[in-house]
Specification:
Number of strands: 0
Structural class: mainly alpha
Radius of gyration: 18 Å
Low-confidence stretches: none
Length: about 230
């Protein structure tokens, strides 16, 4: 049985952590990156939005890895374990505030970059970016389980973020990258946002399947590894 009192307590702690200087700057970086790309391209373009959104999604991986690594350093996870916090409670309490804050950034990016969308396109955009952000957050939490400390977490997570971002970016230049990009949630995000028009954003059934499967698998993997590594009493 999920204890929502514990979930809300974890959410409150994570929200305070996210408001710290370092994590707040991480989220602002995506907005700055989007503005920079838009100015380089020189016109309102969905490509600048796609790159900025993928950058923001990648921040979920950084944030969750560093938060989990920090809690391991401070033995906070062991305290939670003695409080009988389950994997699902920790998952909900950690991911919900991160999802909310990063989705707010994704919404701000659309407005700041001057991209216009209909209500239908907005709904699809929010659903798609939420699934991608959740997948990235869960991968980050898995890295965090195995990271020895924050410094180690940083060195481990950076290559993963680069892989998730660079494969879709080079998809048009290398056939093998294009194939791999089709099966990555970051690739789905870039391709779908590039197809954006005012009235619609094209996400094929195959792309929805990729987003859903990778999201579900990452959640299951985290819950399994959280318990396997002794963080659940």
């Amino acid at each position: 049985m999920i204890s929502f009192r514990k979930v809300f307590a974890i959410m409150d702690a994570k929200t305070k952590t996210l408001m710290s200087k370092n994590f707040f700057l991480m989220m602002l970086f995506s907005i700055g990156y989007g503005i920079l790309m838009n100015s380089v391209i020189g016109e309102v373009t969905t490509y600048a939005l796609a790159l900025a959104v993928v950058c923001n999604v990648g921040m979920a991986l950084y944030i969750t890895t560093l938060i989990l690594a920090e809690e391991k350093e401070k033995n906070t996870l062991r305290v939670l374990m003695t409080s009988s916090v389950t994997g699902i409670e920790y998952f909900l309490g950690t991911v919900i505030p991160i999802l909310i804050e990063l989705e707010i950034v994704n919404l701000i990016l659309v407005i700041v970059l001057g991209v216009q969308m209909s209500l239908t396109a907005w709904i699809i955009y929010i659903l798609m970016t939420t699934l991608a952000t959740l997948s990235c957050a869960m991968i980050g939490m898995i890295f965090g389980i195995y990271a020895k400390n924050q410094m180690n977490a940083n060195s481990v997570v950076t290559p993963a973020v680069l892989i998730l971002m660079l494969i879709p970016m080079f998809a048009d230049l290398m056939p093998i990258m294009a194939i791999l990009s089709n099966y990555l949630f970051t690739g789905v995000v870039i391709e779908s946002i590039n197809s954006l028009t005012y009235n619609s954003i094209i996400v094929t059934p195959m792309q929805w399947t990729v987003l859903l499967i990778e999201c579900v698998l990452s959640i299951i993997a985290f819950l399994f590894l959280y318990k396997k590594n002794g963080f659940e009493a």
